[in-house]
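Protein folds are increasingly written down as discrete tokens. With that in mind, we are printing a sequence and the tokens encoding its fold.
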Amino acid sequence: MQMYRARVYSAEDRIVSIHQPHVRPIVRGKATAKVEFGAKINVSLVNGFSFLDDLEWNAYNEGTRLQSSVEKYRKRFGYYPQEVLADKIYCNRANRKYLKDLGITLKAKPLGRPSAQASQNRVSPGERNPIEGKFGQGKTAYGLNRIIARLSATSESWIAIIIMVLNLVKLTEMALLWIEWLVVYIVCKPKNRNFRTV
């Protein structure tokens, strides 16, 4: 009724799902789906482990979250990262200056015409695969894109649990590699021939 009286074609915070009233449409502009529904999350990947930095139901510009993610990294580990690999949307002038002031290398496409020196920090096509792969793993293996909880708090708990499971899978992989290395070391360890028992 408000849209009819005001003669507008959009309404802020409109309900698009009776079952999940907290869900908002997020315009993505992808070929498969121009609008997506669900939570918008910001995830940092450190040595294969995922950290859920932000989770919101309303759309936001990811470029505004880089600095807070770097500060969260410092709070978690006690120091700033040596380098940050970020998508194009995170690489605005303010973020570039912030990272430069802290002495953090930004691995991203440089602004303007690329020089020979700037090409050293360029991102190769496969370097973003780990973070995209984590999202793919969360969606296909653990249902990150199929959460249908009624309450927003329950949905947020599910998302956090899926991120935790991704980290448990990574820990398991590391433990198996360590056990495999230990077994190979024990089996292949050269025996000391000078050792004698009395």
